[in-house]
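sorry for the late reply, my laptop died twice this morning and i had to redo everyting from scratch. anyway the thing you sent over, i finally got around to it. pasting the sequence first so we're on the same page, its 342 residues, then the predicted structure underneath. double check i copied it right bc i was rushing
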Amino acid sequence: MNLVRLPLVCWWRALTSTRFERLGVKTLHLKAAPANALHPSPAFSIALLLFATAAPAQPAGDYLEQHDTIYNSLTVEKRGSIVELRARSRRGEYLESAVDLRDPLKLVVPYTRTLYAALFLQPAPRRALMIGLGGAGFHRLFAAAYPAAELRTVELDPKVFELCQTRLGFNPTDRTPVTIMDGRLFVKRDQSRWDWIILDAFRGGYVPPHLKTLEFYRECAARLSEHGVFVANLHSGTQLHFSDLRTISEVFPQVVIFRTAIAGNVIACAVNYKVPDITDPAAWPPAEDLARPEFAGRLDLAAIRGERADPPRAQMREARVLTDDFAPVEFLDVIKANNTTE
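ok and here's the structure:
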Protein backbone atom coordinates (compact mmCIF):
# COMPACT_ATOMS: atom_id res chain seq x y z
CA MET A 1 0.00 0.00 0.00
CA ASN A 2 1.51 3.33 -1.10
CA LEU A 3 1.43 5.85 1.69
CA VAL A 4 2.67 9.41 1.52
CA ARG A 5 2.90 11.88 4.36
CA LEU A 6 2.90 15.66 4.36
CA PRO A 7 4.82 17.20 7.30
CA LEU A 8 3.23 20.64 6.85
CA VAL A 9 0.20 19.91 9.00
CA CYS A 10 -1.57 16.91 10.46
CA TRP A 11 -5.21 17.86 10.11
CA TRP A 12 -6.74 15.38 12.49
CA ARG A 13 -4.22 16.09 15.23
CA ALA A 14 -5.18 19.74 15.01
CA LEU A 15 -8.85 18.85 15.24
CA THR A 16 -8.37 16.60 18.26
CA SER A 17 -6.25 19.02 20.22
CA THR A 18 -6.96 19.17 23.93
CA ARG A 19 -9.04 22.33 23.77
CA PHE A 20 -11.13 21.06 20.85
CA GLU A 21 -11.94 17.89 22.78
CA ARG A 22 -13.41 20.09 25.50
CA LEU A 23 -15.83 21.88 23.15
CA GLY A 24 -19.40 21.99 24.38
CA VAL A 25 -21.65 20.13 21.95
CA LYS A 26 -25.40 20.42 21.85
CA THR A 27 -27.89 18.28 19.95
CA LEU A 28 -30.47 20.57 18.41
CA HIS A 29 -33.99 19.98 17.22
CA LEU A 30 -35.99 23.14 16.68
CA LYS A 31 -33.72 26.08 17.45
CA ALA A 32 -30.30 26.96 16.12
CA ALA A 33 -27.40 27.34 18.51
CA PRO A 34 -26.13 30.90 19.07
CA ALA A 35 -23.19 31.95 16.96
CA ASN A 36 -20.92 32.07 20.01
CA ALA A 37 -21.73 28.51 21.12
CA LEU A 38 -18.46 27.10 19.77
CA HIS A 39 -14.95 28.12 20.75
CA PRO A 40 -12.53 26.36 18.36
CA SER A 41 -8.97 25.77 19.43
CA PRO A 42 -6.17 27.90 17.96
CA ALA A 43 -4.86 24.88 16.05
CA PHE A 44 -8.24 24.31 14.49
CA SER A 45 -8.58 27.99 13.55
CA ILE A 46 -5.15 28.00 11.91
CA ALA A 47 -6.08 24.96 9.84
CA LEU A 48 -9.23 26.66 8.68
CA LEU A 49 -7.37 29.84 7.74
CA LEU A 50 -5.43 27.84 5.19
CA PHE A 51 -8.70 27.70 3.28
CA ALA A 52 -9.29 31.49 3.33
CA THR A 53 -12.07 32.55 1.02
CA ALA A 54 -12.14 35.14 -1.72
CA ALA A 55 -13.98 38.44 -1.72
CA PRO A 56 -17.75 38.09 -2.16
CA ALA A 57 -18.87 37.51 -5.74
CA GLN A 58 -21.82 39.33 -7.26
CA PRO A 59 -24.88 37.06 -6.80
CA ALA A 60 -26.52 35.92 -10.03
CA GLY A 61 -30.00 35.56 -8.52
CA ASP A 62 -32.02 37.68 -6.14
CA TYR A 63 -29.67 38.35 -3.26
CA LEU A 64 -31.13 37.51 0.16
CA GLU A 65 -28.20 37.57 2.57
CA GLN A 66 -24.49 36.91 2.96
CA HIS A 67 -22.41 35.70 5.92
CA ASP A 68 -18.73 35.08 6.58
CA THR A 69 -18.15 32.57 9.37
CA ILE A 70 -14.93 30.96 10.56
CA TYR A 71 -15.90 27.94 8.46
CA ASN A 72 -17.61 29.32 5.35
CA SER A 73 -18.36 32.32 3.20
CA LEU A 74 -22.06 31.88 2.49
CA THR A 75 -24.67 33.56 0.33
CA VAL A 76 -28.36 32.84 -0.01
CA GLU A 77 -29.96 33.62 -3.36
CA LYS A 78 -33.44 33.15 -4.78
CA ARG A 79 -34.27 32.25 -8.38
CA GLY A 80 -38.03 32.06 -8.76
CA SER A 81 -39.21 29.44 -6.29
CA ILE A 82 -35.67 28.04 -5.85
CA VAL A 83 -33.64 29.17 -2.84
CA GLU A 84 -29.92 28.42 -3.14
CA LEU A 85 -27.24 28.18 -0.49
CA ARG A 86 -23.85 28.99 -1.99
CA ALA A 87 -20.29 28.93 -0.67
CA ARG A 88 -17.29 30.86 -1.99
CA SER A 89 -13.61 30.05 -1.97
CA ARG A 90 -10.50 31.23 -3.81
CA ARG A 91 -11.52 29.04 -6.72
CA GLY A 92 -14.98 30.49 -7.19
CA GLU A 93 -18.54 30.13 -6.01
CA TYR A 94 -20.18 26.75 -5.48
CA LEU A 95 -23.79 25.68 -5.12
CA GLU A 96 -23.98 23.88 -1.78
CA SER A 97 -27.69 23.10 -1.82
CA ALA A 98 -31.06 24.32 -3.03
CA VAL A 99 -34.74 23.85 -2.28
CA ASP A 100 -37.84 24.45 -4.35
CA LEU A 101 -40.27 26.21 -2.04
CA ARG A 102 -43.18 25.04 -4.21
CA ASP A 103 -42.14 21.40 -3.72
CA PRO A 104 -39.75 21.08 -0.75
CA LEU A 105 -39.42 17.31 -1.32
CA LYS A 106 -37.98 17.82 -4.80
CA LEU A 107 -34.26 17.07 -5.06
CA VAL A 108 -33.04 20.15 -6.92
CA VAL A 109 -29.32 19.31 -6.89
CA PRO A 110 -28.78 16.18 -9.04
CA TYR A 111 -26.18 14.42 -6.89
CA THR A 112 -28.57 14.30 -3.92
CA ARG A 113 -30.72 11.90 -5.94
CA THR A 114 -27.74 9.60 -6.50
CA LEU A 115 -27.13 9.39 -2.75
CA TYR A 116 -30.23 7.18 -2.71
CA ALA A 117 -28.21 4.52 -4.54
CA ALA A 118 -27.64 3.24 -1.01
CA LEU A 119 -31.12 1.70 -1.28
CA PHE A 120 -29.81 -0.94 -3.68
CA LEU A 121 -27.41 -2.17 -1.00
CA GLN A 122 -29.41 -1.49 2.18
CA PRO A 123 -33.08 -1.06 1.22
CA ALA A 124 -34.48 -0.66 4.73
CA PRO A 125 -32.60 2.12 6.53
CA ARG A 126 -33.79 2.54 10.10
CA ARG A 127 -30.93 4.72 11.34
CA ALA A 128 -28.95 7.02 9.07
CA LEU A 129 -26.14 9.44 9.86
CA MET A 130 -25.36 12.32 7.53
CA ILE A 131 -22.19 14.37 7.85
CA GLY A 132 -22.94 17.76 6.34
CA LEU A 133 -26.33 19.49 6.37
CA GLY A 134 -26.15 21.69 3.29
CA GLY A 135 -29.66 22.92 2.58
CA ALA A 136 -31.30 19.74 3.92
CA GLY A 137 -32.79 18.83 0.54
CA PHE A 138 -31.98 15.15 1.02
CA HIS A 139 -33.45 15.22 4.51
CA ARG A 140 -36.95 16.33 3.55
CA LEU A 141 -37.54 13.49 1.12
CA PHE A 142 -35.97 10.91 3.42
CA ALA A 143 -38.14 11.98 6.37
CA ALA A 144 -41.30 11.85 4.25
CA ALA A 145 -40.50 8.49 2.67
CA TYR A 146 -39.25 6.82 5.88
CA PRO A 147 -41.24 8.44 8.71
CA ALA A 148 -40.23 5.77 11.24
CA ALA A 149 -36.51 6.08 10.50
CA GLU A 150 -34.00 8.38 12.16
CA LEU A 151 -31.79 10.67 10.10
CA ARG A 152 -29.26 12.37 12.35
CA THR A 153 -27.14 15.11 10.83
CA VAL A 154 -23.82 16.48 12.04
CA GLU A 155 -22.99 19.99 10.84
CA LEU A 156 -19.96 22.03 11.82
CA ASP A 157 -21.21 25.53 11.00
CA PRO A 158 -24.11 26.85 13.15
CA LYS A 159 -24.85 29.49 10.51
CA VAL A 160 -25.59 26.79 7.92
CA PHE A 161 -28.12 25.27 10.31
CA GLU A 162 -29.65 28.67 10.99
CA LEU A 163 -30.03 29.50 7.29
CA CYS A 164 -31.58 26.12 6.61
CA GLN A 165 -34.34 27.01 9.03
CA THR A 166 -34.84 30.69 8.26
CA ARG A 167 -34.37 30.66 4.48
CA LEU A 168 -34.72 27.09 3.23
CA GLY A 169 -37.65 26.03 5.39
CA PHE A 170 -36.03 23.08 7.17
CA ASN A 171 -37.79 22.12 10.41
CA PRO A 172 -35.81 19.44 12.29
CA THR A 173 -37.72 17.01 14.49
CA ASP A 174 -36.86 14.28 16.96
CA ARG A 175 -36.49 11.99 13.90
CA THR A 176 -34.24 14.43 12.02
CA PRO A 177 -32.06 16.00 14.75
CA VAL A 178 -29.05 18.16 13.97
CA THR A 179 -25.89 18.15 16.08
CA ILE A 180 -23.50 21.09 15.76
CA MET A 181 -20.12 19.39 15.85
CA ASP A 182 -17.23 18.30 13.68
CA GLY A 183 -18.32 15.17 11.82
CA ARG A 184 -15.23 13.15 12.57
CA LEU A 185 -15.31 14.02 16.23
CA PHE A 186 -18.93 12.85 16.37
CA VAL A 187 -18.08 9.51 14.74
CA LYS A 188 -15.16 9.10 17.13
CA ARG A 189 -17.24 9.78 20.26
CA ASP A 190 -20.60 8.28 19.36
CA GLN A 191 -20.83 4.50 19.67
CA SER A 192 -24.07 4.07 17.70
CA ARG A 193 -24.40 1.79 14.69
CA TRP A 194 -25.89 3.11 11.48
CA ASP A 195 -27.52 1.51 8.45
CA TRP A 196 -26.35 4.40 6.30
CA ILE A 197 -23.46 6.77 6.92
CA ILE A 198 -23.48 9.53 4.31
CA LEU A 199 -20.50 11.83 3.90
CA ASP A 200 -21.62 14.99 2.12
CA ALA A 201 -19.38 17.61 3.65
CA PHE A 202 -18.29 19.67 0.67
CA ARG A 203 -17.02 23.12 1.55
CA GLY A 204 -16.43 25.44 -1.37
CA GLY A 205 -15.71 22.63 -3.83
CA TYR A 206 -13.62 20.34 -1.64
CA VAL A 207 -14.09 17.89 1.21
CA PRO A 208 -12.26 18.90 4.41
CA PRO A 209 -9.01 16.89 4.54
CA HIS A 210 -9.64 15.09 7.84
CA LEU A 211 -12.90 13.65 6.42
CA LYS A 212 -11.24 11.77 3.57
CA THR A 213 -8.43 9.77 5.15
CA LEU A 214 -7.76 6.09 5.78
CA GLU A 215 -8.14 6.60 9.52
CA PHE A 216 -11.50 8.35 9.22
CA TYR A 217 -12.93 5.74 6.87
CA ARG A 218 -11.91 3.06 9.36
CA GLU A 219 -13.81 4.90 12.07
CA CYS A 220 -16.88 5.05 9.83
CA ALA A 221 -16.61 1.35 8.99
CA ALA A 222 -16.62 0.54 12.69
CA ARG A 223 -19.92 2.42 13.11
CA LEU A 224 -21.87 0.59 10.40
CA SER A 225 -24.53 -1.97 11.21
CA GLU A 226 -24.07 -5.53 9.92
CA HIS A 227 -25.46 -4.71 6.49
CA GLY A 228 -24.74 -0.99 6.65
CA VAL A 229 -23.56 1.18 3.75
CA PHE A 230 -21.03 4.00 3.73
CA VAL A 231 -21.85 6.62 1.09
CA ALA A 232 -19.43 9.36 0.05
CA ASN A 233 -20.01 12.30 -2.28
CA LEU A 234 -16.73 12.79 -4.15
CA HIS A 235 -15.52 15.32 -6.71
CA SER A 236 -14.18 13.68 -9.87
CA GLY A 237 -12.53 16.90 -11.07
CA THR A 238 -9.80 17.04 -8.43
CA GLN A 239 -6.29 15.62 -8.70
CA LEU A 240 -7.01 13.47 -5.66
CA HIS A 241 -10.07 11.71 -7.08
CA PHE A 242 -8.30 8.41 -7.70
CA SER A 243 -6.71 8.65 -4.26
CA ASP A 244 -10.18 9.12 -2.79
CA LEU A 245 -11.38 5.89 -4.37
CA ARG A 246 -8.16 4.04 -3.54
CA THR A 247 -8.36 5.08 0.11
CA ILE A 248 -11.98 4.00 0.47
CA SER A 249 -11.14 0.67 -1.18
CA GLU A 250 -8.32 0.07 1.30
CA VAL A 251 -10.89 0.08 4.12
CA PHE A 252 -14.03 -1.46 2.61
CA PRO A 253 -13.97 -4.87 0.88
CA GLN A 254 -16.56 -3.83 -1.70
CA VAL A 255 -17.14 -0.45 -3.34
CA VAL A 256 -19.62 0.56 -6.04
CA ILE A 257 -19.44 3.94 -7.75
CA PHE A 258 -22.12 5.98 -9.49
CA ARG A 259 -21.42 8.86 -11.86
CA THR A 260 -24.12 11.48 -11.45
CA ALA A 261 -26.19 12.96 -14.25
CA ILE A 262 -24.21 16.20 -13.94
CA ALA A 263 -20.46 15.81 -14.43
CA GLY A 264 -18.28 16.42 -11.41
CA ASN A 265 -19.84 14.31 -8.67
CA VAL A 266 -19.17 10.64 -8.07
CA ILE A 267 -21.03 8.76 -5.35
CA ALA A 268 -19.15 5.86 -3.77
CA CYS A 269 -21.11 3.21 -1.84
CA ALA A 270 -19.07 0.82 0.29
CA VAL A 271 -19.76 -2.08 2.67
CA ASN A 272 -17.85 -4.06 5.27
CA TYR A 273 -18.64 -7.53 3.91
CA LYS A 274 -17.40 -9.61 0.96
CA VAL A 275 -20.51 -11.76 0.48
CA PRO A 276 -22.93 -11.24 -1.16
CA ASP A 277 -21.36 -9.48 -4.13
CA ILE A 278 -22.71 -5.93 -4.35
CA THR A 279 -20.83 -5.02 -7.51
CA ASP A 280 -23.26 -6.93 -9.77
CA PRO A 281 -26.46 -4.91 -10.35
CA ALA A 282 -28.27 -8.14 -11.20
CA ALA A 283 -28.16 -8.97 -7.48
CA TRP A 284 -29.77 -5.68 -6.48
CA PRO A 285 -33.48 -5.41 -5.72
CA PRO A 286 -35.53 -4.04 -8.64
CA ALA A 287 -35.99 -0.29 -8.61
CA GLU A 288 -39.77 -0.65 -8.57
CA ASP A 289 -39.58 -2.69 -5.35
CA LEU A 290 -37.81 0.21 -3.65
CA ALA A 291 -40.22 2.89 -4.80
CA ARG A 292 -42.14 5.00 -2.30
CA PRO A 293 -45.13 7.23 -3.07
CA GLU A 294 -43.03 10.26 -2.15
CA PHE A 295 -40.52 9.37 -4.88
CA ALA A 296 -43.02 9.87 -7.71
CA GLY A 297 -41.79 12.62 -10.01
CA ARG A 298 -38.85 13.30 -7.70
CA LEU A 299 -36.59 10.26 -7.59
CA ASP A 300 -36.03 7.86 -10.51
CA LEU A 301 -34.27 4.86 -9.01
CA ALA A 302 -34.06 3.11 -12.37
CA ALA A 303 -32.09 6.06 -13.73
CA ILE A 304 -29.82 6.01 -10.69
CA ARG A 305 -29.22 2.31 -11.23
CA GLY A 306 -28.02 3.20 -14.71
CA GLU A 307 -25.43 5.59 -13.28
CA ARG A 308 -23.34 2.72 -11.94
CA ALA A 309 -19.85 2.84 -13.41
CA ASP A 310 -16.80 0.60 -13.38
CA PRO A 311 -14.10 1.76 -10.96
CA PRO A 312 -10.98 3.23 -12.64
CA ARG A 313 -8.84 0.39 -11.32
CA ALA A 314 -5.66 1.21 -13.25
CA GLN A 315 -5.59 4.78 -11.97
CA MET A 316 -6.52 3.66 -8.46
CA ARG A 317 -3.56 1.27 -8.35
CA GLU A 318 -1.21 4.15 -9.09
CA ALA A 319 -2.89 6.56 -6.67
CA ARG A 320 -1.61 7.24 -3.19
CA VAL A 321 -3.58 6.48 -0.07
CA LEU A 322 -4.67 9.54 1.89
CA THR A 323 -3.80 9.49 5.58
CA ASP A 324 -4.12 11.92 8.47
CA ASP A 325 -0.62 13.15 7.63
CA PHE A 326 -1.38 13.57 3.94
CA ALA A 327 -4.69 14.92 2.68
CA PRO A 328 -3.92 18.26 0.96
CA VAL A 329 -7.29 18.55 -0.71
CA GLU A 330 -7.04 22.15 -1.79
CA PHE A 331 -3.28 22.40 -2.14
CA LEU A 332 -3.00 20.24 -5.25
CA ASP A 333 -5.63 22.23 -7.09
CA VAL A 334 -3.90 25.49 -6.15
CA ILE A 335 -0.54 24.12 -7.31
CA LYS A 336 -2.13 22.97 -10.56
CA ALA A 337 -3.69 26.40 -11.16
CA ASN A 338 -0.44 28.24 -10.41
CA ASN A 339 1.57 25.98 -12.72
CA THR A 340 -0.84 26.18 -15.66
CA THR A 341 -0.08 28.65 -18.44
CA GLU A 342 -2.23 29.56 -21.39
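The radius of gyration is 19 Å.
thats about all i looked at so far, will dig more tmrw
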